[in-house]
Prior knowledge:
The chain contains two helices and two strands, in the order βαβα. It is of the alpha+beta class. The chain has a two-stranded parallel ribbon with strand order 1-2.
Amino acid sequence: MSIALYMDENIPLPITLGLRLLNIDVLTVQEDGPVALPIR
């Protein structure tokens, strides 16, 4: 079983980097990219 985390912009970068050093799969909101919202 693996652990995967989604980090928002409020999580300090050193925490994200530290988790990656422990081989935990981390995706940041910045890496995920913008979400296109439908035009109303």
